[in-house]
Every structure is written in C-alpha cells, then in structure tokens.
Specification:
It is built from four helices and four strands. By secondary structure, the protein is mostly helical. The protein has two domains: 69 residues, no CATH class; 76 residues, Orthogonal Bundle (Non-ribosomal Peptide Synthetase Peptidyl Carrier Protein, Chain A). The structure holds zinc ion (2 copies). The site of one zinc ion has 5 residues, from loops.
C-alpha cells in the first residue's frame, strides 16, 4: 500500500506546526496516515498535517522526495504473507494483484491462510475466503492482527491494582 502525495505537499509534525503557526489550528487528515518523516525536522510523524511549500524553500528538507519510513507492522505482515504465498508455490511480483489473477482458487487460498496462521502462531478468524482479495488486502489484514499484540505493552495484572486496596495482603 502506498499513498502518493504531490511533491509540494509536505508532511509536518505538530511541533513544527506549532512553531510556525501557533495562532491557528492545522487542517488534519485523520485516516490512512502513513508513518512519515516530517519534511521540516525529520521526526517520524503520524500527525496528518500537510502543508504546501515550494521545493526551493530552504526549510523543506525532503527536496520533493518525501522521506517515508515503512511501518514495521506492515513490513512484518508483508514477510509473513510473502512466505505463506511462496510456500504454496506461487510466484508473484506485484502485491496489488488479486489472488484470482495469480491463479489461486479458494482452496489454495485457504491453505495460504493456514500457513499464515502457522507463522502467526495463532488462529485467525476469516469471514470468507475470496480469491478476489489482493495480496495487499491480506497484508493489511495480517498487520491488523499483529497490531494490538505489539503496540500494547503487556501490563502485569498486579500493576493494575491500586496499592493499598482493601483485601490486599
Ligand atoms: Zn516533503
Ligand atoms: Zn517537524
């Protein structure tokens, strides 16, 4: 998945925005924001603030080739899905194509999901096995499964209790 953006539309982190225009609120994009580097300071940002600026503006660091860093979850999901597909003996070079167009029927796709489950080491709930989905769709699906377990630090149950709770020894 790749979101194309014009050379003149630069990502700006909230800190840079506040430095520049603290007197008014930015227009934010609130969905599908990739993790990017702020074109003004190089900090990773998902603030969803984009500003228009000419490339010869000395403050713009990117020179028009916006610095993007890939989402580690998507990277991880990509390699899991890729392994499962190649394990099934299927070759592909473009992840935006559907399984159907790769000659994968639902039976074969089911076996790919089984392989994905094996690699994730957990059961995955799949509503329907439809070869019309693209490889990218499955990557996004797997990234979502990976998401919570990685992003949420596991908090030991005991630390959730307030010290001195009645009943505690
Ligand atoms: Zn830029
Ligand atoms: Zn910045």
């Amino acid at each position: 998945m790749k979101i194309e953006r014009s050379q003149l539309s630069h990502a700006m982190c909230a800190a840079c925005w506040n430095k520049r225009s603290s007197n008014h609120q930015p227009t934010r994009i609130v969905f599908n924001i990739p993790l990017e580097l702020c074109c003004y300071c190089g900090t990773p940002t998902k603030d969803g603030i984009y500003v228009r600026a000419e490339l010869d503006d000395p403050k713009v660091l990117c020179g028009g080739i916006h610095m993007s860093i890939s989402d580690p979850l998507v990277d991880q999901a990509t390699s899991i899905v890729h392994n499962a597909i190649t394990e099934a003996g299927i070759e592909y070079s473009d992840s935006s194509v559907s399984f159907e167009s790769l000659g994968v029927d639902s039976l074969m796709l089911a076996s790919i999901y089984v392989e994905i489950e094996k690699q994730l080491n957990k059961e995955v709930k799949i509503d329907s096995i439809d070869p019309k989905v693209t490889v990218d769709d499955v990557i996004q699906f797997v990234a979502k499964i990976l998401g919570p377990s990685i992003q949420t630090p596991s908090v030991p149950e005991t630390s959730l209790k307030t010290p001195g709770n009645a009943g505690n020894p």
